[in-house]
Specification:
The chain has 132 residues and is mainly alpha-helical. It contains four helices and no strands.
Length: 132
């Protein structure tokens, strides 16, 4: 096996990883671990396909990282859904709740807002409906 295809694969993977926009949440470290473990373990499982025990261990390792990510997602979705939100959203929500607490809701008296107009649109020509 030559090193040229492997080098090209590593370079393309690193260029793709640089373009990823990351939103930090509780699952972030586990998702990065899965992103590193899954292709690596499945790639080595393919290389060791003549050794069924080693190949099976590597496949279970790769599938286990995906399963662990799913279990963590389900756990956080049921027990603490706010940890699945990005840090930026959590900061915004805390700021919004703090400012709402200070000023309170803005009262709007009925009838003080101008009515919403519903403009009449011109009718389509009835001559040939296919010319629209």
């Amino acid at each position: 096996m030559s090193a040229k295809p492997l080098t090209g694969l590593v370079q393309s993977a690193s260029s793709l990883a640089r373009g990823i926009s990351v939103r930090s949440s509780a699952l972030n470290p586990l998702l990065w671990l899965t992103a590193a473990t899954l292709p690596t373990s499945l790639g080595f499982a393919y290389l060791f396909r003549e050794h069924p025990v080693v190949m099976s261990v590597l496949v279970v390792l790769g599938a286990g990282s995906v399963g662990l990510s799913w279990l963590a997602f389900i756990y956080f979705a049921l027990k603490d859904p706010t940890r699945l939100q990005s840090e930026a959203f959590q900061r915004w929500r805390e700021w919004f709740q703090a400012t709402q607490g200070r000023s309170g809701p803005i009262p709007i008296e009925p009838g003080t807002q101008p009515p919403i107009r519903n403009p009449q649109l011109p009718a389509l020509p009835a001559d040939n409906p296919d010319e629209i």
